[in-house]
Specification:
The chain has helices spanning 14-25, 38-43, 52-60, 65-70, 90-93, 104-117, 167-170, 238-249, 300-321, 325-352, 360-375, 377-388, and strands at residues 2-10, 30-33, 49-50, 72-74, 77-81, 84-88, 99-101, 121-123, 126-132, 139-145, 148-159, 177-193, 202-205, 211-215, 221-227, 261-276, 279-280, 283-285, 291-292. By secondary structure, the chain is of the alpha+beta class. A hairpin with a 6-residue loop joins strand 9 and strand 10. The protein is globular. The structure holds flavin-adenine dinucleotide and 3,4-dihydroxybenzoic acid.
């Protein structure tokens, strides 16, 4: 099987699928090559918070039919320090901006349904994908599909294959610079058939470690606990998880979590990572393939959306107006937002987690920062501005 397209896309996560859809809206054809099955990518439980800008992007792209119905609009978040919760009114602090809680796998389901309805080409379960000749005008993606050899000839390759994909490692050594930091903890996350602890997301700084209470609906809770980076899930039967969640989320007025059937369990590592530049020749990296943030700022999926929005505009200028300037500017344009999100995610992670080897000095700095956030409007406003997402076009 040999096909020709304008943009060959590796990866059917939020970045690859949204790029393919945005290009389609602009009359630019693409082919998506994905290692996993459709069912696998549609059921992978990951992020859940959409910034206003991401919701706007999905709405403008006609992808918000279910999001409008099922997405939960949140006007505030809560920061719990020990046993006391403090509310940050995002809407008031940002002049009207809000966030929407809607699972990443729901975004992915909506995107796949739309791509298939529009007769978009997605090769699921494509094995051994490789990219070649992307320093020339004859870029190619090769793969195996149902024992058949596949080849996509394309003008450009979009590397949307996540952190463990093959696109970034295909760039010659020395052509990109890596900046990274690994944190000495991870998150144990569960999805549970239970009423959420609160109507809003709660971030907890607790002497036993960080905890987070979020949701997917009024009946399904999404909860996380700080754990060891090499945590063995076998040591965490449901009873132990609930016991720990109660300890960390309980307030002085007796609020805590509601228990229910655990539907899913997993451990997510925490790292900050940026590859610069996000382009090499005719290969453009987008989303987790180019950068990773620790999840504490809820930025991962939003950055993926922002990258492909920039890339789709740049490709549109190239195909429709013969302009290369936006493609040239792609990496620098994206990296500005990426580094703001990297800083914010590092900041939230540092402020809210228990660091295993922290001395008294570090603990007091952390406490002072939390006091500042919950008592100063200027500090709360800065957090809120970053949390809802920096405006597009900056
Ligand atoms: P991905 O969603 O990773 O998509 C990449 C796609 O490429 C995948 O479908 C993958 O199967 C495919 N692929 C990989 N290799 C190949 C190959 N060789 N050939 C073909 N296809 C390939 N963010 C938060 O804000 N909060 C969270 O709680 C949170 N939890 C997370 C939990 C986990 C386990 C992970 C990995 C990430 C989490 N994130 C979270 C981050 C967020 O989900 C990502 O930032 C987001 O998925 C980025 O989208 P993407 O499209 O760039 O990459
Ligand atoms: C969720 C995930 C996050 O990383 C976060 O900061 C807030 C909420 C969630 O899965 O709902």
């Amino acid at each position: 099987m040999r096909e020709r397209t304008k943009v060959g896309i590796v990866g059917a996560g939020p970045a690859g699928l949204l790029l393919s859809h945005l290009l389609h809206l602009d009359g630019i054809d693409s082919v998506v090559v994905e290692a996993r099955s459709r069912a696998y990518v549609e059921n992978r439980v990951r992020a859940g918070v959409l910034e206003q800008g991401s919701v706007d992007t999905l709405r403008e792209a006609g992808l918000d039919e279910r999001l409008r119905r099922e997405g939960l609009v949140h006007e505030g978040i809560q920061i719990q320090v020990g046993e006391h919760r403090h509310r940050l009114d995002l809407k008031e602090l940002t002049g009207g901006k809000v966030i929407t809680v809607y699972g990443q796998q729901e975004v992915v389901k909506d995107l796949i349904a739309q791509r298939l309805a529009d007769k978009g080409a997605i090769f699921f379960e494509a094995e051994n994908a490789a990219i070649c000749d992307f320093e020339t005008e004859r870029a190619r993606i090769t793969f195996t599909h149902a024992t058949e050899q596949g080849e996509i000839l394309c003008d450009f390759v979009a590397g949307c294959d996540g952190f463990h994909g093959i696109c970034r490692p295909s760039i010659p050594q020395g052509a990109i610079t890596i900046f990274d930091r690994v944190y000495p903890f991870a998150w144990l996350g569960i999805l549970a058939k239970a009423e959420p602890a609160s109507e809003e997301v709660i971030y907890v700084n607790h002497p036993r470690g960080f905890a987070l209470s979020s949701m997917r609906s009024h009946e399904v809770a999404r909860l996380y606990l700080q754990c060891r980076p090499d945590e063995d899930l076998a040591l965490w039967p449901d009873g132990r998880i609930w016991e720990e969640l109660h300890k960390r989320l309980r307030t002085s007025s007796g609020d805590t979590v509601h228990e229910g059937e655990v539907l899913e369990k997993g451990v997510t590592g925490m790292r900050s990572f940026v590859a610069e530049p996000m382009r090499h020749g005719r290969l453009f990296l987008a989303g987790d393939a180019a950068h990773i943030v620790p999840p504490t700022g809820a930025k991962g999926m939003n950055l993926a959306v922002a990258d492909v929005r920039v890339l789709a505009q740049a490709l549109s200028a190239f195909y429709h107006h013969n302009r290369t300037d936006l493609l040239e500017a792609y990496s620098a344009t994206c990296l500005k937002r990426v580094w703001r999100a990297e800083h914010f995610s590092w900041f939230m992670t540092s402020m809210l987690h228990k660091f295993p080897d922290e001395d008294g000095f570090g603990q007091r700095l952390q406490r002072s920062q939390l006091d500042y956030i919950v008592s100063s409007r200027a500090a709360a406003q800065s957090l809120a501005e970053n949390y809802v997402g920096m405006p597009y076009g900056r």
